[in-house]
Fold this sequence. Notes:
single chain; mainly alpha; 0% strand; disordered N terminus
Amino acid sequence: xxxxxxxxxxxxxxxxxxxxxxxxxxxxxxxxxxxxxxxxxxxxxxxxxxxxxxxxxxxxxxxxxxxxxxxxxxxxxxxxxxxxxxxxxxxxxxxxxxxxxxxxxxxxxxxxxxxxxxxxxxxxxxxxxxxxxxxxxxxxxxxxxxxxxxxxxxxxxxxxxxxxxxxxxxxxxxxxxxxxxxxxxxxxxxxxxxxxxxxxxxxxxxxxxxxxxxxxxxxxxxxxxxxxxxxxxxxxxxxxxxxxxxxxxxxxxxxxxxxxxxxxxxxxxxxxxxxxxxxxxxxxxxxxxxxxxxxxxxxxxxxxxxxxxxxxxxxxxxxx
Length: 320
């Protein structure tokens, strides 16, 4: 298990209320958050790690959809435009959820709750990046990819974000905009939505549910404090949460084989995807059987190993 400064910070902040001995440490951590550089603040605002994943999945979608030779200029335009939209969406999402973020220990150090940025500044940054990204995609790539970017932005901000407080189905609904970036990469390369692009979309869609069930189970008390209608918040015993993780991990196995079946990748990818899928399913089953935080962490780490390895195999074993 990899221990990072951020993971330690989140753990201390999250447990300080129930452990008085940690209150001084929590105060110190919050003070440290207030002293972040402007670059660190902006990285938090645009959710740099999430945006990096968006960029990677867009790249993979573009490469998978390309016929040799790869058009590097269009690829760069697609990545830049998609990254701009993703950054803008992340900033506007934090603007919409600023009051809720202030209630949660894992998000109270974000730029708005911590007072590092004003709502007006975040609005200008978020709207500016989003509009710039959509225009950039339309002019530098094609109108279809820009349209998919607009669908991603609108569904993320105006469907998924408000539903997070209203229904436990929000995770499945939010997985739709989360799965569109590789499809955008595909359309950037091919100029059309076709079966290969939908396969990449489906892989990312199904992967997100076990991934986020593990996260939501680990932070269910924090989500409850923030007023989010996450499934683990209402599913106290975890039966439905575990079932969702298993169901989507199981469904991911045949879907993940589709790139080989559609002639996008070869036998190495096929075998690797099958083994990865079985391992991911095993972790989901272990999680559902015990519903312990240890198994939730194992499922979480399995998910963040699964996706990059799967995408790497797809790139390495692409049929030219």
